[in-house]
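Pasting as-is:
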Amino acid sequence: MGNRSGTASIYNEFNIAGGTLTPRLDFSFSSRVFYEVNNRISQPAYGVFNASVNYTTDDDRWSFTIGGRNLSDELYFVSSDARNVPTDIGYTIVSYARPREFYGTVAFRF
């Protein structure tokens, strides 16, 4: 069985108070991934949740968003690099995804 990955999103729009409120929930997952031919470095399976709520005024001029990324605070690789030389001395570099974070935005269109 090969590597598996996927994403799913659910959102809805509600007309309220002179604008549109849009809550959104996203989920992405990946099965175990091996980063080397000899399978020495691997990323275990993981899933990540993101969520946001956006409010946009009816005239489309103002938009407000609050949200969070990696809400389950998963520790997973975004890249990996490994080098081995004939003496079996080498290095491995792994870059991890950002931890749980929250954000907010305000936009004005003119």
